[in-house]
Design goal:
Elements lengths: L18 H25 L6 H15 L4 H22 L4 H4 L8 H34 L5 H12 L5 H22 L6 E3 L1 H5 L5 E3 L2 H10 L1 H24 L6 H38 L7 H6 L6 H18 L3 H25 L4 H15 L4 H30 L4 H30 L11 H10 L5 H16 L4 H9 L2 H20 L4 H29 L2
Antiparallel strand pairs: 1-2
Helix pairs in contact: 1-2, 1-3, 1-17, 1-22, 2-3, 2-6, 3-16, 3-17, 5-13, 5-14, 5-16, 5-17, 6-16, 7-22, 9-21, 9-22, 10-11, 10-20, 10-21, 11-18, 11-19, 11-20, 13-14, 14-15, 14-16, 15-16, 15-18, 16-17, 17-22
C-alpha cells in the first residue's frame, strides 16, 4: 500500500480526492451515525469511533486495491463525520420528549424537518468554523489531538495479515446476532437480575449487552471503576438507606435524589472543564501576549476554500436553517455568536484532552441567549442542539485534520469529505433518533433509553428534581474536576441503571486483565471492542427503523 498521494490527480481537480473514497465515506457515515445514535441514547456515553473507521476504511480500500494512506484518511474522515452529529442530537433533543413537548408516533411526520434543519445548521457551523481554525490549531499551535494521533498511528501500523479486519468484523457479527436474538426474537433477556436484591427494592443486576462491554473496554478500568462506584453509592446506599434512616421520605424520592445528584455532578464537571480552559487561556495570554491570527502564509496554503466568501455563505446558510427549524430571528443571530465562542473552546479542549463536553457548551450558550431573548421550550432545546452539534462536529473534524496532517493528506479533500459525510450523518441521525424513541416509547431509564445528557439539558431548560441539590452537586462536580477527580463518570454511574453500569465495569476490568496477560496486543482489544459496540448499535437502529416503518 503506497503512502505518497501528493501528486495524484483528484476528483474535481482536488488532489487526493477520489469518488470511491466519498462513496465509501458516505456509506460508512450512515452506518457509524446510526450506531452512534443508538450508543448515545442507550449507554449515556459515546466513544470516538476512531479505531472502527480507521480499520473499516483501510480494509475496504485495500480490498479494492490501488490505494494509499491519504485516500484511506479521506474516506475515514467522511465515515466519522456523522458520529458527533448524532452525539450532539442525542445529548440534547430527547429533552423534548422528557419535557412532554413531543410524544407519540406523529413526531416523525410533524417535526422531522425541525430536527434536520437544526442538525444541518450545526454541521455547517462546525465545518466552516473549523476550516478557519485549522491553520492555528493544527499547524501553528500543534495541539496534540490524541484521538487524531491514534487514528494516524492505526493507519501507519497497517493491518498485517488481515488480523484486525477479522477481529473487527468477527466482533461486529457476534454483537449483531446477539442483539437480534435479544431485541427482535426475544430469545435472550435484556438483563439478569437478583430476586434477593429486588425484594429489598434494590435494582441490581447485569445487562446482557456486547456494546456495554465494548464501551467499558475502550474507556478503561479507571474510568469504569469510578463509574461503577457511582452506581454502588446510588443503588446500594442512597436508595435503600435514605428512606430507612428517615433522610428521604420514600424510595421514589431517593431515586429522584440520586438522579438529580448525578446530573449535577455531570454539569458541574463540564463547568469545571471550561473554568480550567479559561485559566489556561489566561496563562497563555500572559506568556505570549494576544492570540495571533493565522499567518498569511498558512492562510494562503488553504487556497480558495479559506476565503471569506465560503465563511460568509456557510454562516448565512446555517442562519437560514436555524430559522427553518423555528428559532426567532434574533435568537438565530445570537446562536451564531455563541457557536463561534463555544466551537473555539471545544476545539481547544478536544485538542488538549480528547474530551468534548458538547452538551455543556449547549447549556451555557442557551442560558446566555435566554438572558437576552425569550425562548419557547422547543426553541431552547433547538439552541442547545445547534451548539452541541457544532461543537461535537468541530471536535471530530479537527481530530481528522490532525490525522490528515500527520499523514500528509490534502486538507481540501478532507473538507469536502467531511461535508459529504456530515450531510449523510444529519439525515441518518434525524431518522435514527426519532425511530429509536418511537420504538422504545419514550426517554428515560424506564424506557431503556437513559439519554442522561439530555436529562441534564432538560434540568436547565425545564427544571427537574430539587434545584438546591442540583446546584450543590454542580458546584461539587466543578471542584472535583479541578482537583482532577473524574466527577462526570461518577455522576453517570449514579444516574444510569445499575445493570448497565455493572456491565460497563466488567468491560473495563477485562481491559485490565487483557493488558496484563498480553501487554503488547492492546490495540487488538480496541478493535474487538469497537466491533462489539458497532454491531449492536447498527442492529439496534435497524430493528427500530423496520418497526417504525412497518408498525410492528
Amino acid at each position: 500500500m503506497g503512502t505518497n498521494g501528493q501528486k495524484r490527480q483528484g476528483l474535481g481537480g482536488i488532489a487526493q480526492l477520489s469518488l470511491r473514497s466519498l462513496i465509501l465515506g458516505a456509506v460508512g457515515s450512515a452506518i457509524i451515525t446510526a450506531s452512534s445514535m443508538y450508543t448515545a441514547l442507550r449507554m449515556g456515553a459515546l466513544p470516538w469511533p476512531t479505531i472502527f473507521v480507521a480499520v473499516l476504511s483501510m480494509t475496504v480500500l485495500k480490498l479494492l486495491g490501488g490505494t494509499n494512506l491519504q485516500e484511506i484518511s479521506i474516506a475515514q474522515t467522511a465515515m466519522s463525520a456523522g458520529a458527533m452529529v448524532a452525539g450532539g442530537m442525542a445529548f440534547t433533543l430527547p429533552g423534548l420528549w422528557i419535557a412532554g413537548v413531543w410524544s407519540g408516533p406523529d413526531v416523525l411526520a410533524n417535526h422531522w424537518w425541525k430536527v434536520l434543519a437544526i442538525a444541518g445548521a450545526g454541521m455547517i457551523f462546525g465545518a466552516v468554523l473549523t476550516w478557519w481554525l485549522r491553520p492555528k490549531y493544527i499547524e501553528q499551535d500543534t495541539l496534540p489531538f490524541p484521538i487524531g494521533k491514534a487514528a494516524a498511528q492505526t493507519l501507519i501500523t497497517g493491518d498485517q495479515g488481515g488480523k484486525k479486519s477479522l477481529l473487527l468484523f468477527g466482533a461486529m457479527g457476534f454483537s449483531a446476532v446477539f442483539t437480534y436474538l435479544r431485541d427482535s426474537l426475544g430469545w435472550l433477556p435484556a438483563a439478569i437480575t437478583s430476586g434477593w436484591f429486588t425484594r429489598r427494592r434494590m435494582d441490581v443486576g447485569v445487562m446482557l449487552s456486547p456494546m456495554a462491554v465494548g464501551i467499558g473496554y475502550l474507556i478503561g478500568p479507571l474510568a469504569t471503576g469510578v463509574w461503577f462506584l457511582g452506581a454502588l453509592l446510588a443503588y446500594l446506599l442512597v436508595i435503600p438507606l435514605g428512606p430507612a434512616l428517615g433522610l428521604l421520605p420514600s424510595t421514589e424520592a431517593a431515586v429522584a435524589f440520586k438522579n438529580t445528584l448525578g446530573l449535577g455532578l455531570m454539569v458541574g464537571t463540564g463547568i469545571g472543564i471550561i473554568i480550567r480552559f479559561l485559566i489556561n487561556f489566561g496563562q497563555k495570554l500572559e506568556r505570549k501576549g494576544l492570540i495571533s491570527r493565522p499567518s498569511a502564509k498558512t492562510a494562503q496554503s488553504n487556497g480558495r476554500l479559506n476565503g471569506r466568501i465560503l465563511q460568509l455563505a456557510g454562516m448565512i446558510l446555517a442562519y437560514v436553517l436555524s430559522l427553518v427549524a423555528g428559532l426567532p430571528p434574533l435568537a438565530a443571530l445570537l446562536l451564531i455568536g455563541g457557536v463561534l465562542m463555544a466551537t473555539a473552546m471545544a476545539a481547544t479542549i478536544t485538542g488538549e484532552t480528547g474530551i468534548n463536553p458538547m452538551e455543556i457548551f449547549g447549556i451555557i450558550i442557551l442560558l446566555a441567549i435566554r438572558l437576552l431573548v425569550p425562548l419557547s421550550t422547543t426553541a431552547a432545546f433547538l439552541v442547545a442542539a445547534g451548539v452541541a452539534i457544532a461543537c461535537g462536529y468541530a471536535g471530530d473534524i479537527l481530530n481528522d485534520y490532525k490525522s490528515g496532517y500527520l499523514l500528509q493528506t490534502n486538507p481540501k479533500a478532507q473538507f469536502i469529505s467531511e461535508l459529504v459525510g456530515g450531510a449523510v450523518g444529519t439525515v441518518v441521525a434525524t431518522l435514527a433518533m426519532i425511530a429509536l424513541i418511537t420504538r422504545y416509547g419514550g426517554v428515560g431509564n424506564e424506557y431503556g433509553l437513559p439519554a442522561v445528557q439530555a436529562f441534564a439539558v432538560t434540568q436547565m431548560v425545564h427544571g427537574i428534581g430539587d434545584p438546591l441539590v442540583f446546584g450543590i452537586a454542580m458546584g461539587i462536580g466543578a471542584l472535583l474536576y479541578l482537583a482532577k477527580v473524574p466527577a462526570m463518570t461518577l455522576g453517570i454511574g449514579m444516574y444510569l441503571p445499575f445493570a448497565l453500569s455493572f456491565t460497563v465495569f466488567l468491560g473495563g476490568m477485562s481491559r485490565l486483565v487483557y493488558q496484563r496477560l498480553k501487554p503488547g496486543a492492546a490495540e487488538n482489544g480496541d478493535v474487538v471492542a469497537s466491533g462489539l459496540f458497532g454491531g449492536e448499535g447498527i442492529t439496534g437502529v435497524t430493528i427500530a427503523l423496520v418497526r417504525m416503518i412497518t408498525g410492528a
